[in-house]
Amino acid sequence: RQQIIRGVSTDDYRPTFEEPLRPVVQIYGLDRSGGGAPRLVVAVALPGERLHGTMPPAAGGRTVYPVRFAVMATITGRPQRFDLDTIRQFAVRDPLAKGQYLTATVELPVPAGTYAATVVVEQGAGIGGLSRLSAVATPIAGRFSISSLVLGRTGSGVTWSSGSQAVPLNPLNAYPKGGEAELYYQLAGLEPGAQYQTRIEFFEAQKVAEAAALAVTSTDRAAAPWAEVQRTIGLQQLKEGGYRVRITVSREGQSVTETAFLAVLKE
User: Fold this and answer.
1) Closest CA relative to residue 53, chosen from 15, 88, 99, 104
2) SS (H, E, C) the chain
3) Residue 20 and residue 242: Cα distance in Å, rounded?
4) What is the structure's pLDDT at 208?
5) Which residues partner with 203 through β-bridges?
6) What pTM was computed for the model?
7) Of the N and C termini of the chain, which has fewer Cβ atoms inside 10 Å?
């Protein structure tokens, strides 16, 4: 009985790969526009020099990269597991080289809640990599809650459709010095007509208990119980390095917080 419970409530297996792909993976807990259809959205960036491609006749001279994506998620407090397993064929005009990335998104519909999620990316036996996030939460209808914080970049070439807008993504979470970051998140459990306050802070990742290197605050009024918010933040005040981004949304003694990480690179 214990083995059965473990088998249907965990995904703690660690496949090993002789040739690592070293994927960069972001896992977001989001909902569809208007709420009611939560999901885990996975954005992946694969280093071009680690991928193996072929040029089949049907590809018309393009290089094709077959990639398998497997997403496994267990919900906190319940013996439930949710899975996605798919193979994608990516065709590009020229073979990818060092410094170039193949980007992709996959999504796994799930009930609202908090999940431990594992993403496995493979290119045949012995070639692959994995990423794991121990806690990723989707917004919960009727409860004051916040989704994952998505750090996007206009022109990245990869987006996710929320049902009402195309949300720019940036799996690498890297930005040029002086650039702009597109922040996207969702709020649930709002009171229409009521005000709420938002504070977005950037902290140097290697420092603890330091003042924010950049902080942006605003006061907004809820138009509906559910909202999706997109903000453009200029990074001109940030020097090169890694940063922890914290967003806090507050209303009448309640607050919700979400965190993400980004890197500011040389121009």
Assistant:
1) 88
2) CHHHHHHHHCCCCCCCCCEECCCEEEEEEECCCCCCCCEEEEEEEEEHHHCCCECCHHHCCCEEEEEEEEEEEEECCCCCEEEEEEEEEEEECCCCCCCCEEEEEEEEECCCCEEEEEEEEECCCCEEEEEEEEEEECCCCCCCEECCCEEECCCCCCEEECCCCEEECCCCCEEECCCEEEEEEEEECCCCCCEEEEEEEEEECCCCCCCCCEEEEEEEECCCCCEEEEEEEECCCCCCEEEEEEEEEEECCEEEEEEEEEEEECC
3) 24
4) 76
5) 244
6) 0.90
7) N
Tokens of 37: 């259809």
Q: Cβ of 239: how many Cβ atoms within 10 Å?
A: 10
What burial class does residue 62 get, using C-beta atoms within 10 Å of its C-beta: 0-12 exposed, 13-18 middle, 19+ buried?
middle
Phi, psi of 117 (to 5 degrees): -130, 140
Alpha-carbon separation of residue 40 from 127, 181, 245 (angstroms): 24, 22, 20
Q: Could you list the pLDDT tens digit for every one of the 267 residues in the chain?
A: 676 666 666 655 556 788 999 999 999 999 999 888 999 999 999 999 999 999 999 999 999 999 999 999 999 888 889 999 999 999 999 999 999 999 999 999 999 999 999 999 999 878 999 999 999 999 998 999 999 999 999 988 899 999 999 999 999 999 999 999 999 999 999 999 999 999 999 999 888 767 999 999 999 999 999 999 999 999 999 999 999 999 999 998 899 999 999 999 986
Report residue 133 as tokens: 């996030």
Q: Which two tokens stand for residue 140?
A: 């919960």
Length of the chain: 267
Backbone CA torsion sign across 207, 210, 212, 217:
positive
